[in-house]
Sequence to fold (488 residues):
Amino acid sequence: MLHHGDAPAPVLLVADDDPISRQVLRDVLRPLGATLVFAHDGEEALRLAEHFAPDLVLLDVMMPVLNGFETAERLRGDLAIGDVPIILLSACNSREHRLRGLAAGADDFIAKPFDREELRARVSTACRLGRARRDVGRRRQFEQLVSQAPDGIVLLDDTTRVVFANKAMRAWLTPLPDPMRLATAAWEGVPFADLVVAQEQGTVRELLTSLTTTPGAVVRFEAMLRGLPTVSVEINASSAMSGDRLSCTLVVRDIRGRPTSAQHASLSGAFGSLGRLAAEVTHDVAGLLAVVQDCLLSVAAREGAPLRELTAAQSATSRATRLTRSLLRYGRYSAGIRERIAVEPFLQTQAAFLTNILPAHVMLDVDVAPDLPTVLIDVAQLEQALLNLVLNARNALGGKGRITVSATLEAGGVALAVADDGPGLAPYVAARLGQPYVTTRHETGGTGLGITAVRRCAESHGGTLRVEEEHSPGAKFVLWLPASEPVV
Fold:
C-alpha cells in the first residue's frame, strides 16, 4: 500500500493508448491504494500531469501524438513537475530502447509482458524515492526561506521556552537588557513571555500556555518585544505535535508604523458593512466552487462519467448561482425570500449533496426527531449555513472521523446541530468564534467568516448560534431557529 493513515492518497498518472492495457494496469495498481489518472496519449498525459502534479508517471513507449520518450523529455523540462518519477513500459526490451528511455529522463524501464508483483514493487519503490527527493528539496527551500524571511520565526518547546529563532528575530532581540546578553545562547531556553515588556508578560504567558494543551490551535495577538529599542509586533502562534511532544511555532511581524488593533478597528468601522458583505459572499462562493472542483477531479480521475459526481457538481453550481444573486441585495441576511419548509426532507436532501464533499473515511449521519415544526427560512441561506458548518467539521477531522447532522425540538423551535468527533475547540477559541477573522486555521488560510456568516443567518431569522462546550469528543455547533407557527 502507498497510502497510510490520514495522509492523502498518492496520484499515479498512467498513459497508454490501448484500452485493454489501461484496464490491466488499473487492476494491477488498484491494490496500492493510489488515485489512478489515465491518459490516452502523451499530449493528454502532459496536460493531466500539470493539473494533478502526480507522485509517479507510468508511460507506454509506443503512443500516438507523443511517444513515451518524447513525453518523458517534456516532463523533465517542466520546472514545476520535472522531478516526478517516470517509469517507461515497452514491448521492446532492446538495449537501445532502455538506453534511450534513461536518456529521456526515465527512472526505470519495464518490459511487456510484465510480472504484476514486480511492477507493483517497482512503482512503490519509485514513489518512495520520489517523495524522499521532494522532501530533501523542500527542506532546503524551507531552511533558506526561514533564514531569509523578513518576519521573525520562533520555535518553542512544550513549556513555551525558545529553542530556535531565525535571523530577523535575533536582530530584534539584540541587544537585550541585562541579564539577557547578546549571545544567542543567552536567550535560548528562555520562556518566550520573558522576551516581551513586563506589563504584557502575564497575558502572553497565558496565551502561549493555552496552546500547549490543544494541538492544532492558533492564536493571534500583539506585544512589545524587550529589545533596544522596543519593537511592536504582531504574533501568530500555532501548536502541533512533533513526534510524541507538542511544540509551538511563532511568526512575529514588525508592526511599527502600522495602525494598532484599536486604530484598525476604528478604520474598519467606516467600511464594515460593505467589507463584511464582500468577504462573506467570497467565502461562501469559494466553498461551493471547492465542491465543484472536487467532483470534477473525481470525474477526470476515472473513465466514463459517473452520474453521482455530475449530479453533485450540477447541484453545487445551482447553489452558487443562487448565492451570487444575493449580491443584488445589500442586506442579504435580512431581505431574502423566505419559505416555510419541513426540516426532515430538507436535511435528507442536503445529506445527499454533502456526502460528496467528504473524504472516503469521513462518515455523515443524519438524525432527525419526529414531528418537528416547520421553519420560515431563506432556503439559500440555510443551505449555505449548513454547508459552512459541515466544511468546518470536515477540516477539523483531517480526513477521518464522523460528522452528525441532527434536528431536535427545542424551546419552541428547531435546533439544527452539526457535531464531529475531532480534536474539539480550546475554550478561548470557542468563546470568540463567530467574530470575523477568528479562526482555528490561520495557517491554511482560514478567515473565520464561515461561522460569522452562519451566526448572521441565525440572527436575521430570529435564531441563535452556539457552541456546545460540554460536547466531547469533538465540537458541536447548534443553529436554533424559531418555528414558523407556535408549537402546541
Observations:
- The chain has three domains: 11-146, 149-260, 333-482.
- DSSP finds 15 helices and 17 strands in the chain.
- The first strand starts at residue 11 and ends at 15.
